[in-house]
Structures are given as C-alpha cells and as structure tokens.
Amino acid sequence: MDKSTFEQTAARLRPLILRIGRDFFGSADDAEDVAQETLLQLWRYCEQLDEGRNVEALAIRVAKNCCVNLKRRQHLTLVRETESMGETKLSPHLSPHEEVEREEAIKALDKAIGQLQPRERQLFEMRQMEGLSSEEIAQQTGIAKASVQSMVAMARKKVFNEMKRRMNL
Amino acid sequence: MTQKDVNQLIDKYMEGKTSPQEERQLAIEVNRPDAPAEWKIVAEMLGELTLGEALYDEAMAERKRRRIRRYIGWGVAVAACLMLWFVLGKLVPEAPQQDTTPQIAQKPPVAKPEKPEEKGVPIEVTPAQPVMEQVAYTHPAKRMKRKHRQPASSVAEVVEAVEAETVPELPQVSEEELAQVEKDYQMWQLKQAILMEKIEMDAATMALNKQYEAYLEDYKNSIEI
User: Fold this and answer.
1) Whether the complex's predicted ipTM surpasses the cut of 0.90
2) B12 near B22, Cβ under 8 Å?
C-alpha cells in the first residue's frame, strides 16, 4: 500500500479508532492520542500491507494495543487492574535482562517466519497480525477451512521449532 | 486455568484449531511472569497485538461487570427501601382523617323542565347556601361539663356520641293532671300579683305616715317658737 492510498484509508479508519479509544478511556483527549499512535504504527507498516488485506481488522487490534500501552504509560498500573479483574499477574515493566531476551525472541521469530513458504507465511500473519479466524481467512483467500487450519498448524510448528532451536531451549 | 488446561490450549493452538477468543485467553496465560520457557515461545508467536487485544477486551468486560454490579446494588437498595416503607406502613396505624373541608351540598345535575308548573312536575329544590348534614335527634342531649367533654374529631363522631348518651325517660302524665298543674300555676301567679300589690300599698301607706309625722313635727316646732 502506497502513502497516498494509506492517507485515504487513514481518514476512513480514524473515526473507528477514536471510538475504540473513547470506549476505553472515556475521554476525547486520550482517544485522540490513541488515534495518532495507531495511525503512526500503521504508517510504518503500510508498505508491508497488501491491497487485499483486511486493514480495518489490523487497525482495530493495533488501536486496542495502543490503548493498553497508553494506559501503562499513564501509570495506571496495569497489574493492579488486571489482578482485580481476572487475578492475572502480568509484569508491565521488564528488566534490562528481560528486554534483551525479548529482543532476541523477536529476532528469532522474524527469522523463523522468514523461512516459511509464502502461502504459509501469509496465513500465519493473517492469524497473528490481523487476528482473523480460520473461517474469515478461508473466505478471504478462497482456501477451504480445513486446508487453512492444516497450513496454519504446519507454519506454527515450524516457527515454534525454529525459535526453540534459536533460543537454545 | 490450570497448567494442564493451558497445555491443552497450546496443543490446540499448534494444530491451528483455536478461535481468536481462545488465542487471546492463551496470550494472557502464557505471558505470566512464572510461565515456563516453552510458553514464552508461544507468547512471542501469539504476538503483542493478541496480548493487547486480550487485555483491552478483559478490561472492557470488567467495566461492564462493575456497571452491572453497581446497577444491581442500586436495585437492591431501592427494593429494600420500598420494603421498609411497606412494612412501616403496615405497622403504624393510620391517623383519623380530619374533615377540614366544609360540607357543601353538591348540586346534583337535574334536568330542568322548561315549565314545571304547567306540567305539574314537582321542582326539586337544592340549597344554594352551604348546609350541614341533617341529623335526626331523638332527645336533647344532656349538657356535659366542660372537663368531661372530649374533642370531637368529626361530625359523624359527634352524632354517635349524642346517640350513645342515655337520657331518662319522662313519666307519663295525663291531660287532667296537666290541666290541674296549669290551674295551680295560674293560681300561684295570681297570688303573686296580689302579694305584690299589697306590698306596694303598704309601702305607700308607710310613706304617707312618715310624711304626716314630719308635718306634725314641723307644726309642733312652729308652735313652740
């Protein structure tokens, strides 16, 4: 997707992202921050977006992720909120050692994905990035649902084993 | 979720059979600080976006649950107030209603004939002024002392109190006895009149006697001089 096409898409996506931010924060200012950050991340990624991809689903996921990250930055302690919600204990801040491990894991993931077949890679990213279900992927790609599931399973096993090897686990 | 449940969900994920919702749930589980090393790989594979979406959805669901709990709390409070009001209303007896409004005869809607005299239809007369309720008395009530009187709350209670009083019945008197009493009364009145005249005459006589004695005394004095 080129820059001019993205500008048109961003104008269409902006109200949707603002609504997600307003629902989460309840304020127009925070929703504006979410919209700006979401569109910036999509702008960085736009060259990798294909024309046929579901940009709206990706924008929704990125916007929700931005909401959570913004809340972390506002020191509203995600741990306290998630613990009170579902007794989950997540660490909002990583130590330097954990940061290095995290960067290595991301590099290993990128390399593992890079070794996939093009079709496998496409389906893997549609599940991972856009959060689409097997039915939705089957509708968009025209592949049977069972085939989608088997190809996604094969791609995930390859990535898992490659990451396990690269991370010495 | 137990560790076994998470492992089963990971197996399902690796087979590509998990739904997006199950993957969001799995993202939360495998991102715990105490998660095993293999779970970290799955966490990276699921990606940050899945985790962010999972946290977002869980936060929104928790807010919805809180809102529902708040509504339920308010509902329970309102129901408790209504129940308390109902119970207190049953326990406390109702105060007697004070009839403060003047009783005014309501004029019933009567179809007025054009010329009732000619047709011979009796005219129903309705009072134009406010009137009190008509009460049928059998005997005049004995006047009670003020200290024994009780404040009447309404006209109906006054009527009940008057009717409840027991008045001794008068003895039966015949007409002859009544005529005799009347005659005696007239005689008594006549005697009284005669007595009054006699008294007046005595007074006049005494006054004349005093006047005569005074004249006689003046005459004696004039002779002595």
Assistant:
1) no
2) yes
